Amino acid sequence: MEQESTYNPVIRLDKVSMRYGREAEIFSDVNLALEKKSFTFLTGASGAGKSSLLKLIYMALSPTRGLVSLFGKDVTAMDRSDRQTLKRRIGVVSQDFALIPHLTVFENVTLPLRAAGLPVQKFTEDAKELLQWVGLGEKLDILPPTLSGGEVQRVAIARAVINKPDILIADEPTGNVDPAMGQKLLRLFTEMNRNGTTVIIATHDTSLVSGIDADMLRIRDKRLEKGSAL
Amino acid sequence: MTDKPTPILPPGQSEERPLFVIIVIMSFLASVTMIVSTMGLRQSSAWQEDLRSSATVQITAADPVEKDAQITKALDILKTTPGILSAEKLTDAQNRELLTPWIGSLDLPDDITVPALIRIKTDKSRLNPEALATGFAKAGISAEFDDHSRRAKNLAGTWRRLQFALGFMLLLMIGATVAISGFATHSVLNARQNIISVLGQVGATDKFVGNLFVKRFLSLGFKASMTGMVLALLAAALFTIWQNAATDADGLKISLQLSDILRLIGLSVVLGTVCAFTAGYSARKSVRTHRPAL
Questions:
Q1: Model pLDDT, residue A173
Q2: Which of B91, B122, B141 is the last residue of a domain?
Q3: Cβ separation of B202 and A100 shorter than 8 Å?
Q4: Residues 1-20 of B with CB under 8 A from A
Q5: pTM of the predicted protein model
Q6: Which of A160, B43, B90, B199 would staple B204 via disulfide (CB 3.0–4.6 Å)?
Q7: What is the DSSP annotation of B3-70?
Q8: ipTM greater than cut 0.95
């Protein structure tokens, strides 16, 4: 495997363009460099391409043009299995939360550990503690279809952070929770950030953005620009 | 919270049921083919052994008195010839019985001479047919010696070709198992796209996804192929009872032996393994196609 040249910037996009099939480009020639331990909010109008940009970073999509680098490595040129291994260093909270319906809350949260071939038993206490923290300590054996929208969202967040990722990517992570829980989850993200995790959050939630010392990025007219609070 | 984790791929999906049924059928057909092949091989070996260990001497003299004299001389020579274990002249009735398949119960015309036959048991390793023929010639006996080698060779050749055909059929059945396992894997993958997508998101490798299918289909493949094998064994046992009851002592008696059953278990293991590893391979390949960005 290629040696990591540097951890700064930990996420880098060089002249990246993206389109779905034959449709018009969602964004063009986007440049981005996020340093390790940075905390970034990504904003933009609905349909501006926030989710697509995040998917490019967590390698669920490939760019039409340009270069995507993570941890100093060009992922577009990387071997498939290396990309999959690299993905374990990224925690993702997608907009659809993507839980597996027949697995319990506990099993969904510990899924990244299972996928990495780690012994789940070793992390049982960590997982319980984390679920306790997000207010789901009593729901370890519950199946996702019986949870509320907010609870599902918190399970997805717990799953994204269980293996203490180097990068945390969250797409509207507080959309379905009440403001108090939203602030609590934000505290989790900032705490992780203080411990070294690079955090990037796409959001519409103005209350989430205010009061946090974070970089602001905005997608407008297919371009990424430095922004300020909404 | 239970100690045993829930399988990531939920078992008993409707997409798997046709696969189960088809593998049962494939296993049944493959087991029947193997049973037929094994029983046929055993019977053919017994027939070839019979042919190899026996021979026939035909005394062709036309005059009845001369014929009897030559038979007596021939039996004397055979008794002292190395490699001849026993020699026995067939009676007129036994001779007549040999002709029945060709002429039925009709009497032969008087002017047609039927050669006398001496049936001998031989030890081929010690018998020298040329020396025997020379001995007959020196004694003035008009005899033809037939060691049945031509028929034994024909039988062995026919059996080899039949075995090749049965082996080819077995390969076709394994091929069909590979094809249906691949097809079923695609169905399950399509139906479980949500799970595959989540696994991709949490960093599961293609190998991890493939192994989930191997585990899932290994158990299904073994259950289905064992079921097919047991059904084939039952069918073979019923056929054996029927055949043995319906034929007299001279008829073809068949039997199933422990080694046959062990061979069938081996075949089931092969089919179950083929099913599982085809599923794993198909899953990895399909995931690569469906998640190209990863």
A1: 85
A2: B141
A3: no
A4: 1, 5-6, 8, 10
A5: 0.71
A6: B199
A7: SSPPPSSPSS-TTHHHHHHHHHHHHHHHHHHHHHHHHHHHHHHHHHHHHHTEEEEEE--SSHHHHHHH
A8: no
